[in-house]
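Hello,

Our lab assistant flagged a job as stuck in the queue for most of the afternoon. It eventually completed. Since we weren't sure the result was trustworthy after the delay, we are filing this so someone can double-check. Below is the sequence as submitted and the structure that was eventually returned. Let us know if re-running is recommended.
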Amino acid sequence: MRILWTFAKLVIGLALLVPLGIIVAAAAFGILGVLIGLAVLVLKLAVFGLIGYAVLKVVRHLFAPTPQRPVVHDLPPVDRHYEAAMRELDMELGHSPRA
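-- returned structure --
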């Protein structure tokens, strides 16, 4: 009788666990499918964005006006008083003269 009761518990347990296992496996495969689908969608969007960016760069290169070169102005003249003060400091501190 003891073996029969153990066998009955085993059958009841398996009768509950097998359908639950199938449901869990189906849910896991569904979630995995959704994640793979999202990854493919993001990859498609990235490729579409790269193609769009390349087309934009080509069209801009072909049709945009050439930018004007910035005008480089001369540097302001050297401050004579600053240079004299630096020479005086160099002489006092014993450093070599500046070029």
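-- support follow-up --
The delay was a queue issue, not a problem with the job. The result is valid. Residues 81 and 98 are 15 Å apart (CA to CA). The two ends are 110 Å apart (CA to CA).
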